[in-house]
From TrEMBL:
Gene3D superfamilies in the cross-refs: Bordetella uptake gene, domain 1, Periplasmic binding protein-like II
Transmembrane segments: none
Domain of life: Bacteria
InterPro entries membership: BUG (IPR005064), Bug_dom1 (IPR042100), TAT_signal (IPR006311)
Family designation: Belongs to the UPF0065 (bug) family.
Matches recorded under PANTHER family: BLR1237 PROTEIN (PTHR42928:SF5), TRICARBOXYLATE-BINDING PROTEIN (PTHR42928)
Species classification: Bacteria, Pseudomonadati, Pseudomonadota, Alphaproteobacteria, Acetobacterales
Source organism of this protein record: Muricoccus nepalensis
The name this protein goes by in its record: Tripartite tricarboxylate transporter substrate binding protein
Length: 331
């Protein structure tokens, strides 16, 4: 993971002297002194969600690096829209940030035509912070041991094989829809109000398949209550290195994982952006943090701002096409 160069003591003192010069514009001096008060990170989802847990794991180390408290505030509503909009309309001074997700900053762009913000216009993408990879799992009533066997079996089912999700427009729904579009195999979507309910019906044989976060399904896989047929990411997972990817099993391209990203309002000054990303990088490289993230089924990423924006543009475009082709509507 790239690190920004650390200046020498002489360089730091010279920079500090220059910044203290009365000739320097007030805005530049303010940027140089950032942060000089607490920073707020809005999580646009409820307490206990993966976005919330991850944010509360990462921000304490960032706070140490920046020398100011970071206050995490949950502001849920409308699939992440309420909290995200609050940050989009904040001043671009680095004191109001948003920990967004695949829902709030990618999928919603296509699901909600009247979204009150434009992700690419109204935000400064700081970094792709973590990925939340998934496994494709089936119940034991499904006579398939790999993805191709499942697809062949699904073709024989009247009306297609059923697949569960945690709701319309969720990453589990979109992953199933993408598989359907890539293969032409008939798959019938069954939305649930929660992932837990979906997993219960997979185990009981009410539904055939789901795509869900690795740490949520892994205990059931290890207990023999369901089988993992594929990893939906582009590479195998450290939790389940024995499970091949969807692409390895002949369905390409296919790379699906939920994700979390840090955003600031548009026009964030470059010095503030650089320092913010540097603090995040330090946090993600902390050897004590990685196992805590892994326990939550999260992979630390730390994509730099210059790479995060084009990555985000491509992600939005990918899901726009899936939503359009599948005629997907929010609940």
């Amino acid at each position: 993971m790239p690190r920004s160069p650390v200046p020498s003591r002489r360089q730091a003192l010279a920079a500090a002297a220059a910044l203290a010069s009365p000739a320097l514009p007030r805005a530049a001096r303010a940027q140089a002194g950032w942060p000089d008060r607490p920073i707020r990170v809005i999580v646009p989802f409820g307490a206990g969600t993966s976005t919330d847990i991850m944010t509360r794991l990462v921000t304490p180390r960032m706070s140490q690096e920046l020398g100011q408290p970071i206050v995490v505030e949950n502001r849920p509503g409308a699939g992440g829209v309420v909290g995200s909009e609050a940050v989009a309309k904040s001043a671009p001074d680095g004191y109001n940030l948003c920990m967004g997700s695949i829902a709030s900053h990618s999928v919603n762009v296509s699901l909600m035509p009247r979204l009150p913000y434009d992700v690419l216009r109204d935000f400064t993408p700081v970094s792709l912070v973590t990925n939340a990879p998934n496994l494709l799992v089936v119940g034991n009533h499904v006579p398939a041991r790999n993805l191709q066997e499942f697809l062949a079996w699904a073709r024989t089912q009247r009306g297609g094989a059923s697949y569960a999700s945690a709701g319309n427009g969720t990453s589990s729904h979109l992953a199933g829809e993408l598989l359907k579009q890539r293969t032409g195999v008939p798959l019938e979507h069954v939305p649930y109000r929660s992932g837990a309910q979906a997993l219960t019906d997979i185990i009981s044989g009410q539904v055939a398949m789901t795509v869900y976060q690795v740490t949520a399904v892994l205990p059931f896989v290890r207990d023999g209550k369901m089988r993992a047929l594929a990893t939906t990411s582009a590479r195998r997972l450290e939790w389940t290195p024995e499970v091949p990817t969807v692409e390895e099993q002949g369905v390409r391209p296919f790379d699906v994982a939920a994700w979390h990203g840090l955003f600031a309002p548009a026009n964030l000054p470059a010095p503030v952006l650089d320092r913010l990303f540097r603090a995040l990088t330090v946090a993600l490289n902390d050897p004590e943090l990685r196992p805590k993230l892994n326990e939550q089924g999260l992979e630390p990423v730390g994509l730099p701002p210059a790479e995060f924006r084009p990555w985000l543009e491509a992600d939005i475009a990918k899901w726009r096409e899936v939503v359009r082709a599948g005629n997907i509507r929010p609940d």
